[in-house]
């Protein structure tokens, strides 16, 4: 585990841990082609896309999801 190799991370404040996570994510996102995607995930994406193509009216917009959750 990374925490075993870098125990200082455990000593960070929650805010600093969030900043670190964000910085790491931004670094990874700079080269999305290097992020491995499993065959299982690829199949799931394809399956959901096919479901969308078969029933395009069954989707819910992000704005609608937020509204239903009381977030907007």
* Molecular shape: flat
**Gyration radius over CA:** 19 Å
How many helices? Answer: 4
Tell me the structural class: mainly alpha
Q: How many beta-strand segments?
A: 0
Poorly predicted segments: none
Task: Give the overall average pLDDT.
Answer: 94
Profile the largest sheet.
none
End-to-end gap = 39 Å
**What is the strand content?**
under 5%
SSE string, helices as H and strands as E: HHHH
How many domains is the backbone divided into?
A: 2
Which bin fits the share of residues in helices?
A: 55-70%
Assembly type of the shown chains?
single chain
Describe this structure in words.
The protein is mainly α and 72 residues long. It has two domains: 35 residues, no CATH class; 37 residues. Helix content is 60%, strand content 0%. The chain contains four helices and no strands. The longest helix is centred in the first third of the chain and has 16 residues.
